[in-house]
Amino acid sequence: MKIDLTDTTAGEINKALVRGRRAIGTPAVGMVLTLVIVTDEENAYDSLKAANDASREHPSRTLVVIKRVSRSPRDRTSSRLDAEVRVGAEAGTGETVVLRLYGEAADHADSVVLPLLLPDAPVVVWWPVNAPLDPAKDPLGALAQRRVTDTYAAEEPVRELTARASAYTPGDTDLSWTRITPWRSMLAAALDQVTCEVKAVEVEGEEFNPSCELLAMWLADRLDVPVRRSLSSGPGLTAVRMDTSQGPIVLDRADGSLATLSIEGQPARAVALKRRDTAELIAEELRRLDPDDTYASALRYGVERLHTVPEQPAEASAEPVAEPEPVEEAAKAPAKKAAAKTAKKAPARKATAK
């Protein structure tokens, strides 16, 4: 069921939600959280579809905030709120409200969203694109216990990671970090199978892929070993190679779905490591609403530190360099050579005399 409201208010939206629940015969509210999606018109459909799929695991009230930019100077000063209220099959297992804010209302989105939050329920804010540099200081982000961004959608993902590290606040997370959860689980399980010391690591993947950078920073932070970042044509992460005291450990995924785990002394095995869609990523993030300390530690390791190449000491020459002879010894050198030649010829001269 869908109810369209034009030039409305938050009070009218709440009344429409009650009417919609009664119309479909579910007056009780059984939702566990409020998910606020801040996006644009272009990405609203995909984001809402992912949220509806995730609501099967986490029934929630989804509020989609779309700030419409007015072209006319007159429209910029006027304020208007349009809404679509969806309940039933069109809203997954929860409720959905699509908010389109015009004019001055777009600058005060938090005042529009606040009356629509579920009482006594956690709030999660998700920016699929165009996330603020400091999500916790954003007016909408300040309402949430959990703030989800996606650096993969940024124009310069690696630089965006640096901004995320400097502005990190407990409760921040990123879908680029969520994408590497199966990789981290598989690598940790591989190291549990052997008793060894990791000496160096190589992470291979696409250029400018924030998930590759985060995995490399996590390994460098946890193992305290040099981590080299190499490039491939993708898709995404393609391989992790660990040089250990018991031989190499390699997790190689060339096709984006099936990976091969190789451990020295054991047969190679195939493991499922497919690229997950956005609905699975959001569902994973909604399972835990406490701060992710592991993500914070890896993020603070720093991209610059990861790409800094330590200075190598100059290698010693294979051939020893002869020390310069003193001046007196250098002057006597021709005389010594002549004496040596005379000594070699002496026996021949004696034989001729006889």
Give the count of structural domains: 2
Total strands: 14
Question: Any low-confidence stretches, pLDDT <50, length ≥5?
Answer: 309-354
> What's the main sheet like?
8 strands, mixed
Q: How do the strands line up in the largest sheet?
A: 1-4-5-3-2-6-7-8
Rough outline: elongated
Percent in helix? 25-40%
Question: What share of the residues does DSSP label as strand, in percent?
Answer: 15-25%
Instruction: Output mean pLDDT.
Output: 83
* Helix and strand sequence: EHEHEHEEHEEHEHHEHEEEEEHHHH
Question: Which key terms come to mind for this protein?
Answer:
G6PDH_assembly_OpcA, Glucose-6-phosphate dehydrogenase assembly protein OpcA, about 35% helix, single chain, elongated, 12 helices, alpha/beta, disordered C terminus, 8-stranded mixed sheet, OpcA_G6PD_C, about 350 residues, 6-stranded mixed sheet
Give a quick precis of the structure:
With 354 residues, the chain is an alpha/beta fold.
Layout of secondary structure:
Layout: E1 2-5, H1 10-24, E2 33-39, H2 41-54, E3 60-68, H3 73-77, E4 79-87, E5 95-103, H4 109-113, E6 123-126, E7 146-149, H5 157-166, E8 172-174, H6 175-178, H7 181-192, E9 198-205, H8 210-223, E10 227-231, E11 237-244, E12 247-252, E13 258-263, E14 269-272, H9 278-285, H10 293-301, H11 303-307, H12 327-353
Protein name: Glucose-6-phosphate dehydrogenase assembly protein OpcA
Region (Disordered): 310-354
Domain Glucose-6-phosphate dehydrogenase assembly protein OpcA C-terminal: 170-299
Structure description:
The chain folds into 2 domains: 2-175, no CATH class; 181-275. The chain has helices at residues 10-24, 41-54, 73-77, 109-113, 157-166, 175-178, 181-192, 210-223, 278-285, 293-301, 303-307, 327-353, and strands at 2-5, 33-39, 60-68, 79-87, 95-103, 123-126, 146-149, 172-174, 198-205, 227-231, 237-244, 247-252, 258-263, 269-272. With 354 residues, it is of the alpha/beta class. The radius of gyration is 33 Å and the shape is elongated. It has an 8-stranded mixed beta sheet, sandwiched between helices. A 6-stranded mixed beta sheet has the order 10-9-11-12-13-14, covered by helices on one side. Residues 309-354 have low confidence and may be disordered. The longest helix has 27 residues, at 327-353. Helix 2 (41-54) crosses helix 9. Residues 310-354 are annotated as: Disordered. Pfam families: OpcA_G6PD_assem, OpcA_G6PD_C. Residues 310-321 have a biased composition (Low complexity). Residues 170-299 form the Glucose-6-phosphate dehydrogenase assembly protein OpcA C-terminal domain.
